[in-house]
Amino acid sequence: MSDIRLAIVGVGNCASALVQGLDYYKNGDKSGLIQNEIGGYTVGDIKVVAAFDVDERKVGKPLGTALKAAPNCTPWFTRDLSGEGVTVLMGNILDGVAAHMAEYEEDVSFRPSSQESVDVVKALRESKANVLISYLPVGSEKAAKFYASCCLEAGVAMVNCMPVFIASDKEWADKFREKKLPIVGDDIKSQLGATIVHRTLAQLFAERGITVKRSYQLNTGGNTDFLNMLSQDRLKSKRISKTEAVASALPAEHNSKLHIGPSDYVPWLQDNKCCFLRIEGEGFAGQPIELELRLSVMDSPNSAGCAMDAIRYCAAALDRGLSGPLEAPSAFFMKRPPVQLTFKDAQDGMEEVLAKPMLSPVKG
Ligand SMILES: NC(=O)c1ccc[n+]([C@@H]2O[C@H](COP(=O)([O-])OP(=O)(O)OC[C@H]3O[C@@H](n4cnc5c(N)ncnc54)[C@H](O)[C@@H]3O)[C@@H](O)[C@H]2O)c1
């Protein structure tokens, strides 16, 4: 039996939650998962074989140690992983580290290593990785494209959890198709987060004949993702991704006044994300309807369930010879998929992926 051999780019909070989750769920516990088995793969079939980062407190360290290193702040909910046998390799920094990080205390911000980058393609080949997951910081346009190119060269499928548009960009989608590699992207949704709650409620307004006149979704958090997003320059694609995810659930005439995005960095919140949501609508005979909601989640564990499933759909697609962007899994798990689908259409599309005949299974 062979496993899904996973490479991780960005050993931050989301990677910590994912790797801890692989340990937490390896013995078959199902509570808290979206799906237990996908295309024959359980969570226990995902093995991390390579990891890349650029922070001096993570590079050269065993993965389990690096996942606990500052500035990571997501809760530790599983056993000690330091003996897993993967050492974090120096990646290519490019635009991964925002300049304003240097102005903040080192326990909450990035500290780039001065080491030379390894040959990422060679490292991917040597590790025999078949799926790479990208957890780069928002705004890392060059770095995101660099690692996507490495996937293409090394023959590795990709799950793009960050909002640089690769799966949803035609040129990049074609490159993955040409190399016969599947990709799920872009910008991972949380399992039950602000995007899915906002989308569902907005859709409910529309379905009940209420016109959505105005809405905001203000998000606050205290992890490095929120610190990084203080830079408005880095934020453009994140705003597009989050706004489109809600706008696509509404008829066009409802979309004019949506204000959605990361709103502030509150250090003491750490990995706790709080979303403040308001929807103003007009109902029968133009009468007003207002809804206010506060959602509090642990940000990084909340994305790990979706990531585990996206990884397994990539492996299932490799088994079936499918390539390019996987539309239904991308629509289900990502904020900015190539095509936005309703929940039901995305679920049906995912079943169709698994119903395709197998070629040469990753899992033998
Ligand atoms: N629920 C969620 O937390 C959630 C949801 C949707 C999307 N995302 C996105 O996922 C991404 C990761 O989020 P996170 O909370 O883990 O961020 P994080 O800040 O905790 O981790 C990012 C990691 O990337 C490393 N890094 C920076 N530049 C690099 C480079 N060039 N090469 C390799 N590593 C590099 C950093 O050192 C850090 O360890 C972000 O883009 C975020 O917006 C997160």
Please outline what is shown here.
The protein is of the alpha/beta class. It contains eleven helices and eleven strands.
Structure description:
The structure is a single chain. The chain has helices spanning 13-24, 63-68, 120-127, 141-154, 170-178, 194-207, 224-228, 236-247, 301-319, 327-333, 343-355, and strands at residues 4-9, 46-53, 88-90, 131-134, 157-160, 182-185, 211-221, 258-265, 272-282, 288-298, 324-325. The protein has 364 residues and is an alpha/beta fold. The chain has two domains: 4-190 and 301-355, 3-Layer(aba) Sandwich (Rossmann fold), CATH 3.40.50; 194-298, Dihydrodipicolinate Reductase, domain 2, CATH 3.30.360. The strands form two sheets. The protein has a seven-stranded parallel beta sheet with strand order 3-2-1-4-5-6-11, sandwiched between helices. Bound molecules: nicotinamide-adenine-dinucleotide. The site of nicotinamide-adenine-dinucleotide has 37 residues, from α1, β2, α7 and α9.
